[in-house]
Amino acid sequence: LVETPARVFDAVEEAIGPVTALVLSHCHSMDSGILETTTESFDLHVAVNARASWLLVREFGRRFRAARGRGRIVALTSDHVAGNLPYGASKGALDRIVLAAAVDA
Fold first, then answer.
1. How many domains in the chain?
2. pTM for this predicted structure
3. Pairing of strands 21-24, 72-75
4. What is the CATH number of the domain that holds 38?
């Protein structure tokens, strides 16, 4: 859900105070090549590894930029392309999301 990141940040800020860094270490990974990957598997990888990350990064950027200036984002990934197309594609998107955040936020 699109509103979930705001609720996550609200809960953390209430419990321990302002968030100054965001670490993205979650992933969905099911090995499959380009010929075996289903649409459903590809969409799930993108939803977890790219879209959820983007929503969290966006919420972090909105809050941190408005309140404190600069923060830190760390995104963990690896380079699986051959033999694990949906993971590699979705983590490639995450790489671009983090780079965009560094420039835009």
1. 1
2. 0.88
3. parallel
4. 3.40.50.720
Q: Domain range holding 67? A: 4-104
Per-residue pLDDT tens digits of the chain, which is 105 residues long:
668 999 999 999 999 998 999 999 988 988 899 999 999 999 999 999 999 999 999 999 988 876 666 789 999 988 766 788 999 999 999 999 999 999 887
Q: C-alpha distances in angstroms, 95 versus 26, 46, 91, 102? A: 14, 13, 6, 11
- Decide if 57 contacts 73 (C-beta within 8 A): yes
Q: Using CA atoms in the order 49, 55, 58, 62, what is the torsion angle rounded to 10 degrees?
A: -150
